[in-house]
Write a structure and sequence with these properties.
two-stranded antiparallel ribbon; 7 helices; alpha/beta; 212 residues
Length: 212
């Protein structure tokens, strides 16, 4: 993401996105480049609108502040918007790596069940090609929400006002699980701020200049 750095101290990720949307709405925020499919670029205004629309949609589906939301998709665009959208409505998001083509459905669902149980997840946002499988497995374990297409996303009405879930982590982060069970940590806002500030200082990162 271009223009976000740890120099903002304790301002939230969503506050940073909103600030950039107000001060440089047409500048590039995110670019998704994948072989064989058209590139997708989002300006800061596009990003904020998409995130707040998805946040409103998740609120209407029943996601509440503090709910753990698993984001399950192979598409980077869906991963990013799902992560920020869940955060916008006060959820605690975590991105799960997409299952390998070598992984059986049974092993995949075993992994998903373990993550759901250990994280106390309430919701899964899944890509269209996985939503059916996850829904059949989930029954009453978790709620399953299918990702909207770009066109459908733009047609969603209403924007949510970002919610800060006090007393809850900012997001969860799990290992890949290639050497055994997936291990996770709860990342707080303070942890994330320290990490991004340190990383930004070492990498000399800051807002992108127009002459870059």
């Amino acid at each position: 993401m271009r223009g976000l750095s740890g120099h903002a101290q304790m301002s939230t990720i969503l506050e940073q996105i909103s600030r950039h949307a107000q001060t440089r709405p047409g500048d590039l925020a995110l670019a998704f480049v994948s072989p064989g499919v058209p590139d997708v670029e989002l300006s800061w205004q596009d990003l904020e609108d998409s995130v707040r629309r998805l946040g409103r949609h998740l609120q209407e589906r029943g996601v509440s502040p503090g709910d753990v939301v698993l984001v399950l998709s192979a598409a980077p665009r869906e991963q990013a918007l799902g992560f920020f959208g869940a955060m916008a409505c006060g959820g605690v998001p975590t991105i799960l790596s997409f299952p390998s083509v070598k992984q059986s459905e049974r092993r995949f669902l075993e992994m998903l069940g373990s993550v759901v149980a250990n994280s106390h997840a309430r919701w899964v946002i899944a890509s269209a090609d996985l939503a059916g499988v996850v829904s059949r497995w989930a029954e009453r374990k978790v709620g399953v929400i299918e990702f909207q297409s770009i066109t459908a996303m733009a047609a969603l009405e209403g924007l949510c006002d970002p919610v800060s879930p006090e007393g809850h982590p900012l997001f969860l982060q799990f290992s890949s699980g290639t050497t055994g069970a997936r291990k996770g940590i709860a990342v707080t806002r303070e942890m994330f701020t320290v990490y991004t500030s340190s990383y930004g200082a070492v990498m000399d990162m800051g807002p992108v200049r127009s002459d870059n």
